[in-house]
């Protein structure tokens, strides 16, 4: 193992490197840009670019790229070399400030949801100096935002940066009222990433894995995860070797990879980094997913980031641990030791509670995708209903605050905001509710509905914005009270009480998997948006358009175009799955079953020739030929549905999404049932692809 301290961040143009490589004045003005969002002057940019280039060349880089996050959910890059020809036929290596600050990729092939007219194919990328440049595959990567020429955001970074500013602005206002002076509040995130590893040779034999990232057929293996022997189990040597290399690569890129372990399902694992600012955490999570795939390939493995690669065992999610902290590093969701700190904590808590309740629809939309639909509501994931877990202790404290009742039955205390110190409650209680979509875990919230392949950008844009909105309402109220000469403690207590009272229906500490909860949630008026087509219409509801517009995160046009992209992506993904299924069933499975049938029929004829009993053969032939007919019918009806979807498509992706949900997905499920049943009846040597036993237990 290389020296971790030495390799950590060695491929990153971070603050230490900047201080070393840049003239003092340049370093200072760059920092003004980073800290205060001041515009960077071109002469400064030229000096920075040159220093970056020299540093990158020392590390073996030959190219640079603007690295951005278009609406595909993955990252994009277009490499240019540093070479510039000079007289005499040779070249020098150059990189200008202009090239650092702005790029103009031909953007016509990225999804824009109709934002960019075809005649204006260009977009531009703009350097985001708050995320450090780094070297990957001999290329200097410059994290950038991606916009259209009209200035509309075409990516997942621009709105995230805007949302961080919005929540900072409102949080600073609230803090000021409490006498906490700070110039900036940062939203922080630590995303826990789940994934599967499968053998590359087996993977290549399955079109479903290759084309869609998940198995579309597959009978359950005799053993699944019922023995709970994989979770936290000892790592197998091949997996260990993969993780070691993965960590080293990530550390070089400055990613704070910290925890690794086996997950619940066989072949499933998890990696968690140490939290950092939302923007960097998002960049790093994209890099983590990409590096996982790259390193796996070197070990003859494939890393599956799909939410539900295998039926019958756990799927993969991504837990988005989120909090707010001041620039100075004070966590605002950490209960404090003084009455003032506690009042402040309860105010921020009230804002989050109100935000999650009022904008449960937006949180749901932020995790909606065709692949996450396969998982939400399954037993490894929270249900589609958004609710919040606070734990019994904190809930009791809040009840005491709201109803002015005794918090502690024995001591008969009433909690008074701004006067009392919160009683200590255990931070990490062991009964931490694993079934809740949104859980308070002592000093942060954990949003657990994200799918494993989800970019964390969307959910954090949502969280930052909705909390900004509630904080702004709170600040409005407190400022007005203050101006009217009201007692501050009383005013805080009143507002917190009101907020919690109005939104307490979102708090649920029980079992989110239970049937009772579904009924109870309905009684409470909470939304249960089971599928992506159910959820997406909410994104463009008037209250949500107004919210994002108010905080300058999205314009109405940007939101409508984003929704269009979501619908389109849902439809395309499921349609690819349906086509893959029909293709595999027709060209691989049906012929395999017929071949096996023929083998049995020939056996029967041979056996009969000797006058022996052929009742087993006859029974098998009967069963198989019945099912072959069912298989053929199921293929035909799926094909018809796929064909018909073309005309539905003419009426728009939104309409198509419902057709897909109600017609295509059920037809896919019927076909799968028949195939999985056949898999259990056909001899192993005839089955045309690796099975779940092969895939899940072969590393
Ligand atoms: P779990 O018990 O849920 O598996 P882990 O320890 O694996 O927890 O992950 C917890 C994650 O929460 C880590 O990524 C950690 O860095 C992150 N985290 C801790 N504090 C904060 C915070 N203040 N803001 C955001 N994320 C945080
Ligand atoms: Mg977790």
Descriptive report:
The chain is α+β, with helices and mostly antiparallel strands. The protein is 50% helix and 13% strand. It is built from 23 helices and 20 strands. The strands form four sheets. Strands 10, 11, 12, 13, 14, 15, 16, 19 and 20 form a nine-stranded mixed sheet that branches. Strands 1, 2, 3, 6, 7, 8 and 9 form a seven-stranded mixed sheet that branches. Strand 19 (438-440) and strand 20 form a beta hairpin. Helix 3 (24-36) packs across helix 4. The longest helix is centred in the last third of the chain and has 54 residues, at 556-609. The two termini are 23 Å apart. The model has no long low-confidence stretch (mean pLDDT 92). The protein binds adenosine-5'-diphosphate and magnesium ion (MG). The site of magnesium ion has 3 residues, from loops.
Poorly predicted spans: none
User: How many DSSP helices?
Assistant: 23
Q: What's the total number of strands?
A: 20
For the record, give the distance between the C-alpha atoms at the N and C termini, rounded to a whole number: 23 Å
CA-based shape: globular
Q: What's the story with the biggest beta sheet?
A: 9 strands, mixed
Helix share of residues? 40-55%
- Radius of gyration from CA coordinates: 28 Å
């Amino acid at each position: 193992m290389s020296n971790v301290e030495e390799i950590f961040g060695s491929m990153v143009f971070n603050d230490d490197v900047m201080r070393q490589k840049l003239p003092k004045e340049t370093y200072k003005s760059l920092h003004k840009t980073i800290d205060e969002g001041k515009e960077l002057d071109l002469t400064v940019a030229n000096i920075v670019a040159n220093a970056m280039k020299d540093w990158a060349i020392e590390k073996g880089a030959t190219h640079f790229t603007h690295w951005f996050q278009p609406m595909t959910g993955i990252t994009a890059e277009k490499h240019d070399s540093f070479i510039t020809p000079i007289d005499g036929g040779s070249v020098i290596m150059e990189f200008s400030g202009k090239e650092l600050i702005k790029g103009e990729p031909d953007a016509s092939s990225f999804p824009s949801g109709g934002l960019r007219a075809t005649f204006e194919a260009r977009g531009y990328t703009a350097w985001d100096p708050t995320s450090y440049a780094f070297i990957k595959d001999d290329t200097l990567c410059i994290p950038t935002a991606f916009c259209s020429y009209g200035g509309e955001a075409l990516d997942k970074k621009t709105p995230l940066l805007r949302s961080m500013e919005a929540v900072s602005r409102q949080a600073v206002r609230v803090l000021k009222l409490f006498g906490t002076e700070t110039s900036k509040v940062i939203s922080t995130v630590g995303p826990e990433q789940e994934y599967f590893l499968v053998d590359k040779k087996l993977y290549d034999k399955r079109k479903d894995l290759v084309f869609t990232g998940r198995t579309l057929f597959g009978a359950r293996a005799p053993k699944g995860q019922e023995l709970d022997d994989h979770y936290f189990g000892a790592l197998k040597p091949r997996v260990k070797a993969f993780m070691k290399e993965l960590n080293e690569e990530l550390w070089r890129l400055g990613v704070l990879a910290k925890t690794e372990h086996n997950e619940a399902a066989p072949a499933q694992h998890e990696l968690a980094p140490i939290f950092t600012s939302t923007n960097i955490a998002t960049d790093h999570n994209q890099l983590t997913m990409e590096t996982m795939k790259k390193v796996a390939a070197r070990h003859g493995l494939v890393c599956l980031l799909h939410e539900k690669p295998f039926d019958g065992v756990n799927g993969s999610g991504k837990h988005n641990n989120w909090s707010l902290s001041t620039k100075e590093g004070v966590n605002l969701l950490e209960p404090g030791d003084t009455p003032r700190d506690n009042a402040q904590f309860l105010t921020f808590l009230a804002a989050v509670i109100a935000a999650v309740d009022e904008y449960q629809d937006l949180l749901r939309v932020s995790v909606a995708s065709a692949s996450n639909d396969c998982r939400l509501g399954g037993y490894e994931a929270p249900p589609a209903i958004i609710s919040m877990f606070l734990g019994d202790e904190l809930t009791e404290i809040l009840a005491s605050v709201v109803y002015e009742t005794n918090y502690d039955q024995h001591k008969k205390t009433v909690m008074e905001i701004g006067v009392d110190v919160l009683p200590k409650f255990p931070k990490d209680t062991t009964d931490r509710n694993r079934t809740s979509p949104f859980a308070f875990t002592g000093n942060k919230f954990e949003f657990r509905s994200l799918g494993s392949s989800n970019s964390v950008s969307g959910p954090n844009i949502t969280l930052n914005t909705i909390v900004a909105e509630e904080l702004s309402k709170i600040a409005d109220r407190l400022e007005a009270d203050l101006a009217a000469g009201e007692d501050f403690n009383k005013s805080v207590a009143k507002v917190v009480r009101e907020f919690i009272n109005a939104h307490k229906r979102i708090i649920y500490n029980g079992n989110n998997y239970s049937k009772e909860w579904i009924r109870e949630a309905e009684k409470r008026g909470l939304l249960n948006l089971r599928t992506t087509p159910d959820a997406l219409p909410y994104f463009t509801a008037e209250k949500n358009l107004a919210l994002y517009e108010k905080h300058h995160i999205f314009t109405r046009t940007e939101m409508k175009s984003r929704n269009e992209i979501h619908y389109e992506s849902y439809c395309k993904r499921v349609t690819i799955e349906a086509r893959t299924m029909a293709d595999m069933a027709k060209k691989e499975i049906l012929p395999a079953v017929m071949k096996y049938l023929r083998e049995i029929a020939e056996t029967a004829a041979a056996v009969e020739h000797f006058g022996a009993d052929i009742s087993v053969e006859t029974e098998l032939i009967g069963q198989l030929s019945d099912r072959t007919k069912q298989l053929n019918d199921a293929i035909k009806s799926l094909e018809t549905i796929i064909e018909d979807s073309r005309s539905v498509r003419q009426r728009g992706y939104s309409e198509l999404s419902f057709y897909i949900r109600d017609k295509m997905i059920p037809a896919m499920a019927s076909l799968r049932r028949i195939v999985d049943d056949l898999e259990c009846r056909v001899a192993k040597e005839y089955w045309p692809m690796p099975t779940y036993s092969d895939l899940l237990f072969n590393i």
